[in-house]
Amino acid sequence: DTATLTPQASITAQTSEDLKSDLKKVYEGGANRIVIDLKLVERIDSIGLGLLAATHNSLQKRDSKLELINAGKEICKVLNLMRLDRHFIISCTPEAEV
Asked: What are phi and psi of 48, to 5 degrees?
């Protein structure tokens, strides 16, 4: 079962509680793959990165996966710089891969 979430804003300390709540619902609902569509996200701070890492760790414990899609250029840079691409699937937008 796959669940897809599309955050409507940056994933920061001020906005991460809504995403955390949504992630918890789909996790507890038994989703074995969670896809986060980042097409509307322009910023991720350390709190947001921590939320993604914690979600990955929780999913990994039950052999499930986290996937990030449509990451823009800046988001892709941050995720790769933090080496999160080694832990879960990240798909960048075509212009971000240039």
From this structure: -65, -40
